[in-house]
Design a protein that fits this description.
Blueprint: E1 12-19, E2 22-31, E3 37-41, H1 50-54, H2 58-63, E4 67-72, H3 88-103, E5 108-113, H4 115-126, E6 131-137, H5 153-163, H6 167-177, H7 186-198, H8 200-212, E7 231-236, H9 244-253, E8 257-262, H10 269-272, H11 274-286
Parallel strand pairs: 3-4, 3-5, 5-6, 6-7, 7-8
Antiparallel strand pairs: 1-2, 2-4
Helix pairs in contact: 3-4, 5-6, 6-7
The chain binds the ligand O=C(O)CCC(=O)/C=C/C=C(\O)C(=O)O.
Length: 287
């Protein structure tokens, strides 16, 4: 499959999942045909989706012979909406279990970005037999930062955009996502704003969820030693959403983890340093 052979629309799929108390329709993108599958889980910003977060990272994996599944978590993009009163990390893990069962995938590698990384760790703890290797970027556990006041600047901007979804608030948030904002185009802003405004129900339910339970992403630090999977941690040195000492906490707790820190990089390492990130991921998955 070549770069021009796939698009969001041509790879868009829906699945009905019933997993425990969850009964909902999930949207996902399905690309490639390899024997091994890589699942990508997006972050929690308004208008995020698998495609929005990972469109620069799909092609090298597909060309290397992996099947790639981008799951849109409940409450994002074209998946059903939901109010999360408990741990959203665990809710997303449960949704992923349901999707993998529908797709008959027994074991997958997972790349998680921010909330997606928190959810990857929740999945690894709940369903250890279903995981291959893990790649966690800008997340993996909630909990305190020893150095940066919380909520961080970036998380406050996410909250402001959820409550008041204007182009001005979107630009404020996205300028903090990245180290170098010169790559953010008007087209990117407009696409993201269209995604945001197309699902007001998701926005309202995220605000409701955060009011019901401000700690949507619990601290897994005390359980990290249970995860035996090879894990690549990737952080931006200038991450203003989830500070880099969270990466150090993960490195200390996960027995088989290694950490790579990009300099001149914010919260979107997979986008800001896509070529190097893609090479590192392929090397990690194939060796
Ligand atoms: O609150 C947290 O710990 C997670 C924050 C988070 O998931 C932010 C992600 C932002 C994006 O990657 C996005 O919106 O595209």
């Amino acid at each position: 499959m070549t770069a021009t052979a796939f698009s969001e629309a041509s790879t868009s799929r829906f699945a009905r999942i019933k997993e425990g108390d969850l009964d909902l329709q999930l949207h996902y993108n399905d690309l490639g045909e390899g024997a091994e599958t890589v699942v990508m889980l997006h972050g929690s910003g308004p208008g995020a989706s698998g495609w929005a977060n990972f469109n620069r990272n799909i092609e090298p994996l597909v060309n290397a012979g992996f099947r790639v599944i981008l799951m849109d978590c409940p409450g994002w993009s074209k998946s059903d909406t939901i109010v999360s009163e408990g741990s959203r990390s665990n809710l997303n893990a449960q949704a992923l279990k349901g999707l993998l069962d529908v797709l008959k995938l027994t074991r997958v590698h997972i790349i998680g970005n921010s909330m997606g990384a928190h959810s990857t760790v929740a999945f690894a703890l709940e369903y250890p037999e279903r995981i291959g290797k893990l790649i966690l970027m800008g997340g993996g556990t909630g909990g305190p930062s020893a150095f940066v006041p919380q909520p961080t600047e970036g998380i406050k901007l996410i909250g402001a955009l959820y409550r008041d979804p204007t182009i001005e608030n979107l630009k404020k948030m996205m300028n903090v996502f990245v180290f170098d904002a010169s790559g953010l185009t008007d087209e990117l802003f407009q696409t993201r704003l269209d995604n945001i405004l197309s699902r007001r129900d998701h926005l309202e339910n995220f605000v409701k969820s955060s009011t019901l339970n401000p700690k949507q992403f619990p601290d897994f630090s005390h359980r990290l030693h249970e995860i035996n999977a090879d894990t690549l941690l990737v952080w931006g040195r200038e991450d203003r959403f989830v500070p880099m000492d969270t990466g150090l906490r993960l490195l200390a707790g996960l027995p088989r983890a290694q950490l790579h820190v990009f300099n001149r990089c914010g919260h979107w390492a997979q986008w800001e340093h896509a070529d190097k990130f893609n090479r590192m991921v392929l090397d990690f998955l194939t060796h």
